[in-house]
């Protein structure tokens, strides 16, 4: 399913607020959220995109190239868990915790 524009905008904002430099996306489909993630990352950032099929990713690839962020995308065609374990465990990462309190309050905190 394609990511709606408002969700993509929220995703970009969360990535920028967290200061993330790398990301992993499991289940790429046509790459709508992959594009949003790549646009939000700094120029030296990387997003590892994992999907079981390259077919749908290739539909969205021209848009990723046109946006000028293809150099940030590392697509891996594999079952999610085998590709996940091949991602570099030595790369420092920052995790986000989003705690939802009630319906309207949320706390976003970067965890080193």
Architecture overview:
This protein has 112 residues and is of the alpha/beta class. The chain has a single domain (5-111), classed as 3-Layer(aba) Sandwich (Rossmann fold), CATH 3.40.50.150. It is built from 4 helices and 5 strands, in the order αβαβαβαββ. A 3-stranded parallel sheet has the order 1-2-3, sandwiched between helices. Strands 4-5 form a two-stranded antiparallel sheet. α1 (5-18) runs parallel beside α2. The longest helix is centred in the N-terminal third of the chain and has 14 residues, at 5-18. The chain starts with a helix and ends with a strand. Mean pLDDT is 77; it is low at 89-112.
Can you give keywords for this protein?
alpha/beta, Rossmann fold, three-stranded parallel sheet, two-stranded antiparallel sheet, 4 helices, 5 strands, 38% helix, 27% strand
What top-tier CATH class fits best? Answer: Alpha Beta
Number of strands: 5
* Overall pLDDT confidence: 77
Our count of helices gives 4
Describe the sheet with the most strands: 3 strands, parallel
Q: In whole angstroms, how far apart are the ends?
A: 32 Å
CATH T-level fold name: Rossmann fold
The backbone outline, from C-alpha atoms, is globular
- Helix/strand class: alpha/beta
> At the fourth CATH level, what is the homologous superfamily?
Vaccinia Virus protein VP39
Low-confidence stretches: 89-112
Q: How are the strands ordered across the major sheet?
A: 1-2-3
Helix content: 25-40%
Radius of gyration using CA atoms only = 14 Å
What's the number of domains?
1
- What series of H and E elements makes up the topology? HEHEHEHEE
Strand proportion:
25-35%
CATH architecture: 3-Layer(aba) Sandwich
């Amino acid at each position: 399913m394609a990511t709606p524009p408002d969700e993509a905008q929220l995703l970009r904002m969360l990535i920028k607020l967290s200061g993330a430099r790398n990301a992993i996306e499991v289940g790429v489909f046509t790459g709508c959220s992959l594009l949003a993630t790549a646009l939000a990352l700094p120029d030296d950032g990387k997003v590892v995109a994992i999907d079981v099929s390259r077919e749908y990713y290739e539909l969205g690839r021209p848009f990723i190239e046109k946006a000028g962020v293809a150099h940030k995308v590392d697509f891996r065609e594999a079952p999610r868990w085998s590709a996940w374990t091949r991602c570099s465990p030595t790369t420092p990462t920052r995790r986000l915790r989003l705690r939802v309190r009630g319906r309207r309050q949320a706390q976003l905190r970067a965890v080193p």
